[in-house]
Amino acid sequence: MGVTTQQLSRFKRDGRPIVVLTAWDFLMAQVLDRAGVDVILVGDSLAMVALGHETTLPLTLEDMLHHTKAVRRGVKNALVVCDLPFMTYQESVAQAMHSAGRVLKETGAQAVKLEGGHPAMLETVERLTQAGIPVMAHVGLTPQSVHQFGGFRKQGTTAEAAERILQEAIALESAGAFSIVLEHIPADLGLQISQKLTIPTIGIGAGPHCDGQVLVTPDLLGLSEWQPPFAKPYTNLRDIITQAVQTYAAEVREQRFGDSPNA
Ligand code: KIV
């Protein structure tokens, strides 16, 4: 058995930060897993970053099943978590059970992630957990609510909004979530929630004090043309790939292209 949800709780108790990254295909999942990432999230950022949509809303459950199966084939050790896409769990508990059940049965992912902490979602988290489906919660900037927020805006910036997010996080822990993503909220709120909860918090744009951090992998690699303000590139793969492609193109066009030295 690789990384488990129980192990992530132990990591928090032991003060060992949790490393989370996104992947949507076999190759990237294999690289991240072999590099020692703890959790691989098949995030619905897939819709925007890899499929070119303006929001995450168009993604279907079939899309997520397809990509999660590919990721799972590349992973030996990390915990694989699959995002439930927009309107595959919000309609009713029964719909959420059906969608999450398909994810675990058909892909081999060990957990699902869903967005929001309002009362109906708490019931959903409770019922999924009771059915043996581990749930990663997600509060703060929840991109599936982009139209309600009026854009991909920072959340929890007023005392009232911060208190609401804190209460949602506490309620999601009580409902049974094994972990919670905190997205694009002030760092002091990230710290406050991380101190209050016993389950691990995973931050993205939520300051350095969360129990773990998640980045969208193409942002870490400097591959995306546009990056959110909290993204932190560790290299510039877009430039590196462009240079490699231009070198190859020049060799082909100038008839200098020879066989690989390994051929
Ligand atoms: O879809 C995604 O990649 C996510 C992360 C940003 C947490 O939900």
TrEMBL record:
EC number: 2.1.2.11
MF annotations from Gene Ontology: 3-methyl-2-oxobutanoate hydroxymethyltransferase activity; magnesium ion binding
InterPro entries for this protein: Pantoate_hydroxy_MeTrfase, Pyrv/PenolPyrv_kinase-like_dom, Pyrv_kinase-like_dom_sf
Catalyzed reactions: (6R)-5,10-methylene-5,6,7,8-tetrahydrofolate + 3-methyl-2-oxobutanoate + H2O = 2-dehydropantoate + (6S)-5,6,7,8-tetrahydrofolate
Residue positions binding 3-methyl-2-oxobutanoate: D44, S45, D83, K113
Compartment(s) where it occurs, according to its Swiss-Prot or TrEMBL record: Cytoplasm
Pfam families reported for this sequence: Pantoate_transf (PF02548)
Function noted in UniProt: Catalyzes the reversible reaction in which hydroxymethyl group from 5,10-methylenetetrahydrofolate is transferred onto alpha-ketoisovalerate to form ketopantoate.
Subunit (UniProt): Homodecamer; pentamer of dimers.
Family: Belongs to the PanB family.
Official protein name in the record: 3-methyl-2-oxobutanoate hydroxymethyltransferase
Organism: Thermoleptolyngbya oregonensis NK1-22
Gene: panB
